[in-house]
Give the backbone structure.
Amino acid sequence: MRIGELSARTGASRRSLRYYEQQGLLISRRSPSGQRHYDEDHVQRVALVQVFLAAGMSSRAIAQMVPCMTEPTSDKARTALTAMNQERTRLSSTIDSLTAAREALDQLIDVNRDFLAAGADT
């Protein structure tokens, strides 16, 4: 498939897909005229990249993990594992912080509901 179809199937803009390639997150095949061509695996790869980016991972961190997925070697796997563990630790910390913020917000919501239920300002 060409870049337009990959864009339509993944929701990623053509510009984003070109950026992913520039960063080494996505590798396309090229036609003799230089057009990018993708296959079904690229749809899944783009979805994975989008999930990682949405989770706050940098393209650099993702790029450290990608070689292990496309061209596995022992050295690449060790480097990727280190990056993966670092990102997992960062995500866990973020999740903990978000959970604490949600719990604090829930408490404020309860206080506000109790206040309103008591007929304040009536």
Summary: The helical segments are 3-10, 14-22, 40-54, 59-70, 74-117. The first strand starts at residue 29 and ends at 30.
